[in-house]
Design the sequence.
């Protein structure tokens, strides 16, 4: 299967919320992570099929407001990637499977915050005799082309 998208409704806990919970009790973060990862797992099972690595991931974080810093919002990628692994969409979350993460922050939507993740298969990624990829430059160039395509098609993460 080629490129796919998943949309998770609502806002995932940001880094500040996760740290605040962890400060209250040692098991709080584990509970938050388990709950959010399970949410993504069930959504992924309904929206996606297993994908052939390696892949690039593009996250479209549509929040209610602009008040939370992008690095705090993008903390939710951990829950999403772990949920994709739990759902069997990705074999694991290592660097041989996921080659890049790109975070985009379209205009806020107070009524329908969400995160849309585009999973993009990298074609023609072959191993050399030494075990490293022979086309890392091609992969980087393809990633740039994918981002230009995202910008050119006028999408703002609305699905």
Sequence:
């Amino acid at each position: 299967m080629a490129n796919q998208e998943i949309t998770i409704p609502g806002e995932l806990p940001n880094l500040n919320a996760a740290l605040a919970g962890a400060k209250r009790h040692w098991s709080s973060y584990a509970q938050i992570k388990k709950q959010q990862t399970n949410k993504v797992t069930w959504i992924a099972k309904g929206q996606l099929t297993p994908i052939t690595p390696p892949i690039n991931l593009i996250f479209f974080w549509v929040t209610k407001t602009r008040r939370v810093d992008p690095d705090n919002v993008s903390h939710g990628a951990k829950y999403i990637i772990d949920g994709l692994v739990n759902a069997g969409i990705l074999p694991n979350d290592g660097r041989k499977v996921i080659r890049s993460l790109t975070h985009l922050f379209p205009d806020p939507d107070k009524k329908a915050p969400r995160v849309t993740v585009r999973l993009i298969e990298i074609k023609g990624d072959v191993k050399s005799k030494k075990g490293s990829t022979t086309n890392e430059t091609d992969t980087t160039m393809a990633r740039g082309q994918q981002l230009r395509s995202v910008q050119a098609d006028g999408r703002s993460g609305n699905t």
Helices lie at 15-24, 28-47, 70-73, 77-86, 136-152. The chain has a mean pLDDT of 85. The longest helix spans residues 28-47.
